[in-house]
Amino acid sequence: MSDHSASTDHAPHDITGPTVSVVGSINLDMVARAPRLPLPGESVTDAQLAQHPGGKGANQALAARRLGARVVMHGGVGQDPEAKQALSLLRAAGIDLSGLKVFADRPTGLALIVVAENGDNQIVVAPGANRAFTREHLHLKPADAVICQMEIPRDTLVAVTEQCGDAFFCLNLSPVREVPQPVLDRADLIVVNEVDVAATEPLLAGYRGVLAITKAARGADLKRGGETVASAAAPKVKVVDTTGAGDAFTAALTLALLRGDDPAAALAYACAAGSCAAAAPGTQHSFPDPAAVAELMAGAG
Asked: Where does the record place the catalytic residues (predicted)?
């Protein structure tokens, strides 16, 4: 890879679903599976270490692809061996990487993740090249939907709103940071987890779009204008690893609303996708296809 070139990999022609542009982070996850999560200042031993592709942007891109979308990924990586690993599953899935920027002077983002036996996790991210992906590197193509997260510069998010046209725009408000007003005004869907709801309330006081609040094993709620319009329970699964479950949820909800599902049906579909991901080890390896989601929903019914 050079710092001026980008991959021209494209999705194969067997995918006929909607086109989704994902603008966000691309990381390599360093995952330590431990008996339990450490307390502050505590060391926990007997962990097993593995490396997996990750980053909320790349995760949501692959999740959307697995669920039938044609996906274009926009983001930054370093000119290092970690980039090849971080992009491996995106390439294998045929995701269009023409929106990729490779930086010679920045490392690929790294996430340090501890996963406990019960599936809970703790995550610390060193963003690296993700923070270097600024507005001049973004060139969106026409798409049916655009998905973003908060692991890229805020001005890049503003550039997304300037370039996305009339696409359905989903913002996954994670990690919680100040959101530029043009982004809030443009977002059709905002996804936030219940842990961050209190922190996001001041940011979203005037938001009039659809707000999804995820509640882990207890499902999720959809709100509009402060009123709950739908609630869904998460199908019961044996939780193996919750890392990436929220990313599967975000991609699934975007696609379900894009295809015209009513709020309750869309939310149930997204919760099932998230549960499928939580029931398998790893992050990107755990993302389901539509058949797996349908099977879980049928069993839950």
From this structure: 247
